[in-house]
Amino acid sequence: MSQGKSKRPICPSCSKPTRTCLCSRILTPPIPNSVNVTILQHALESNHPLNSTRIAKMGLKNLTIATVSDINTHDLFCDKDSNLIDIDIIDSDGLKNDVDGVIFNSKVETVNQVNDDGVVVNDEVKKIPIHRKCDDLTRGRKLLELEVKIAKKILISYRDRVRIKVKTTHNKTEILSDVVFEWLNETEILIQEVENLMAQARTQHLDEFTKLAEKVKAHNMKFELLDPFSTPIPSLEGLSNGNILCFKSREKATDQLLVALQDDTCSVIGLYGRKGSGKTTLVKAMGEKVKYLKIFHEVLFVKVTQNPNIRTMQDEIADSLNLIFDKNSEAGRARRIFSTIESMNCPILVIFDDVRAKFDLEDVGIPCNSNFCKIVLTTCYRQDCELMYCQREIQLDPLSSEEAWFLFRKHSVIHENKEYYSSDLLDVAEEVAFECEGLPRTIKDVGYSLRILEEKIHATLLHVFSIKLYLKGGSRLLWMMEDCTLETKFHPLF
Predict the structure, then answer these.
(1) Which residues are in the NB-ARC domain (predicted)?
(2) Its pTM surpasses 0.85
């Protein structure tokens, strides 16, 4: 081909040869503005030289563009809410980049002015609602990941609130419901599941995100159902059917005993105090409390004689466990008790009351170093606790004078007919209570004796000048009365 030969004319709009270009055919003859034109454009043809955007540049005022697509590369579409977006139809790249996915049934209304070259100028494009479908797998995955993360944050917030409430719950007066601990355990498991899923998000199917998000949301709804969160713990007085009164002087020993019973490093506990101080009543009430709190599954009570009898103690334990011995020797019976306790696989508390001499717990059949068995001994002297190798020694103090006077009035007739007695008689009764030295059992016995001998004692005490109480041999209470004849008489009360 010679250099002087001219090139074929090219259309400035579509860069095609003018003989094959459709631009001139559309512009000549011009289409009246009153004609409504609808152009169907395939989504894959957005980059074609003769697309709807370029046609719009040619001066068509009343134009409707409908973009269609038959592409569905994924099973899952993620719909977003309809919104208003700005679209400039003159910039086809802006239309393509601004909207992710497929645009369908989108109507573009324009008010155009056409210059001499047939190009739209000063166009004004309205805001129109565009409904978008996302067939992009990455976009759908990100939205589901965000949903799971939000549910996890809400779950962590609820968990922290429950933990704070658990810490502020007074463990002496309230017991947490089992559903609270179950909810917390399930929460930790779900949080770990979310973290594991997010760590492998790229390789997980989208269904896994949907299922876990619904699971976390359902668990969050259970937070509102944690009711009751806690329940009041019955007092020792209620658990003992009124056999023990919750005096302030007993709080220290009671708290120490409860802490020791929950200490995994302490298996043998000794409670010591004066005879009649209420050790037996306290450990029985504490046994009911720890069983109510589910600290121990079984509580066995064994009364120890002055000279410990192994067979007698074994019989008491066997009765509590509904155990039948197949061997009659002490060693064989001990092995039977030992194996039974070990096989129960639940916490057991064994109380040996009124220990006065040393004996071997293993001879009875009690496992001393078991994780499931704990022993409490009551005795009058601290050295007995040392002889029994107690790991924790707790002292039970006597009642205060105010507590002794309150208990005395409760078990006598004074609290019922206080106005019936003179002030002198009340002073004598208070002195009687004081002479009991704060020992609850002594106070109860004296008060009960006064109740029985009410008429006789009331008539007699009207002539009392002085009265003294003392313990004879540690077991027999006598009261001495000196009347106006200076005749001394001793009257045993019990």
Answers:
(1) 251-412
(2) no
